[in-house]
Amino acid sequence: MDIKKIFSFLVIVFFCGILNAQNFTRPNDWKKYRKELVVQGGASGFLGDLGGTDNIGKDYSPADLEYALARPALSIGYRYKLNKTYNVFTSFNYMLVTGDDKLTSEPYRNNRNLNFKSNIFEFSTRFEYSFYASRPGHRYSIKKTLLRRKRGKAKEFIAFIGVGCFYFNPKGKHPLTGESMNLYDLHTEGQGLKNGPEQYKRIQLSIPVGFAIKTRFKKYWSLGIEFNYRKTFTDYIDDVSTTYYNKIELAEAYGSNSVIFSDPSLGLIPSATVPNADGTGAQRGDKQKDVFMSMQVTLGKFFPPKRRKTRLRSKF
Fold first, then answer.
1. I need a labelling partner for 82 at 20 to 30 A (CA). Which of 69, 275, 288, 309 fits?
2. What torsion, rounded to 10 degrees, do the Cα atoms 264, 266, 271, 273 define?
3. Domain-by-domain residue ranges, the chain?
C-alpha cells in the first residue's frame, strides 16, 4: 500500500469531517475529556522481504500479510485534547514481528528459506483529528431522556499521522540446530566488506498513520479499536535487502555462521543464489523499505479537571 495513497485518503476524510463534525452539548464540555490515559493490546504484522502469501510479494500491501505470523502488540499512551477536534497522542509501543519463507509456497521465496524475528520498541507522537466528537449524556440521567443518554455513548472516529523512533534487532534460527542467533553481528549481506553495503542502524524513524474508532462508557471510560500502519526508512528489519555476498569472503571475515545464515537455501532452484554472469550477486531481497503495523483494542480512562471550591466572602 503506497503511503502517498494513505495520506491522500486521510486528507480527503479530514476535510469531509470538517463539514460533518458534531459539537459537544455545551461549549466547554470537551474540556472534561481533555486528558486520557490509554492502554492497548492486540496483534502486530510485518511487510518486508521474508514470508508473505503464496504469490509474488506486493510492496506495502496488507494483502501480502501472513496472518499465521501475527504476534503480540502492546502499548501505553497519553492523549491530550488541544480543542474540540484536534488531539496529540504520545505512546510507547512494543511489538514482536517475524517472517519465515517456509510458510509460503511461492517457489523462489520458499527456496530461499530465510527466517527472522525481532522485538520492536517504539516511542511515537502523532497528531489526531476527531470526527463526530462524542456527546455527554443527560446531566441528571432522567429515565425519560433515553435519546440523550444514548448520545452519551456516541462513537468517535479518529484519523492520525505522526512520527516515531524505534529499535529493532533481528534474530534467525539456525537451519540445522534451530539455535537463535543475532543476525546483525553476522553481516549476512557483506556489510562493511568491499563492494558490500554499510552496516545498518538498528534505531530508525517511523511514520505512523491510521485510524481509531472508540465509544465512551461509564462517563469517563472509553473502549475502541485502532489500526496503526508504520512506514519506515530501513530495509533491514528482517536483515534482508539486496544481494547474496561472496561466501568465501564472508567466511574469512565473519565465520561459518555468517555463510549459513546468509544462504540456507533448499537448492530446489538451480543457480538461484550464485553470482550473475556479470559478477554481481544474485538477488536476495528487494530495496523497498519495510513496514510494520498493529491492530489493537484500546481502553482509556479520562481525568476530568477538579472542580474549584467556591469561597464565601463576608460582606463585613
1. 309
2. -20
3. 3-23+37-302
